[in-house]
Amino acid sequence: VVEAIKDLVQDCNFDCNDDGIQLQAMDNSHVALVSMKLSTGAFSPFRCDRNIALGINLNSLMKVLRAAGNDDILTLKAEDQPDSLNLVFESPGQDRMSEYDIKLMDIDQEHLGIPETEYAATISLPSAEFQRICRDLSALSESVSIEASKDGVKFSCSGDIGNGSVTLRPHTNVEDESKSTSIALTEPVNLTFSLKYLVNFCKASSLSGSVQLCLSNEVPLLVEFKMGAGYLRFYLAPKIGD
Amino acid sequence: PPKQATLGSFFKLP
What we know:
The complex is a heterodimer of chains A (242) and B (14).
Chain A: H1 2-5, E1 11-17, E2 20-26, E3 32-39, E4 52-57, H2 58-65, E5 73-77, E6 84-90, E7 97-103, E8 121-126, H3 127-138, E9 143-149, E10 152-159, E11 162-168, E12 182-185, E13 189-194, H4 195-201, E14 210-215, E15 221-227, E16 230-236, E17 239-240
Antiparallel strand pairs in A: 1-2, 1-4, 2-3, 3-16, 5-6, 6-7, 8-12, 8-14, 9-10, 9-13, 10-11, 14-15, 15-16
Helix pairs in contact in A: 3-4
Chain B: E1 3-4
């Protein structure tokens, strides 16, 4: 998760309570927002005696996380009114244990109220497919138009060297649900977004085999990666004409 | 060309 969001947001409050750990942060330009939830089910055990916000610089956190082995068991601990977050990595065979503390910071964060939205179009597709489309089209242009109709979803762009488009049609993979593409639509939508941000969101592709795109005309796009016990959501403000 | 909107115009600050 940290790897997936660290290029978008730098200083974040990890809000801990009985439900788990949540994070909401906007990028510096206020164009994109990250919203993450790791429910208690993601941890074993999880204990939180009182609500607490852990202000963490993600670059610092990454420096420490890189010291962990892929299969290590990670324990995160913070005291009441903490100055630091304690991280312990234990190898699966328990023959190696490393321990780090990283300094916490006070982050005065504006929490945005995200209205409950009934989106006009909800598209599920393999996350690798979405990543490929964003990468391919970003070679041609800074922006992509996403046009959803009952026939399919079309990603198109135009730039100095020419233009390009990718159209996906609904498709069911009976063996692997995450490889299916589905489109639920109440009305057609057509919106334009910055590819730079979408390419950035796709760093979360390794967290989930499928991704959900939720669109309504003239509102921010929601890109959601569902995780076993939580989610990673990205909101992106559209580009709007005159 | 279309202009980039910011989230503040869609989401409410508390």
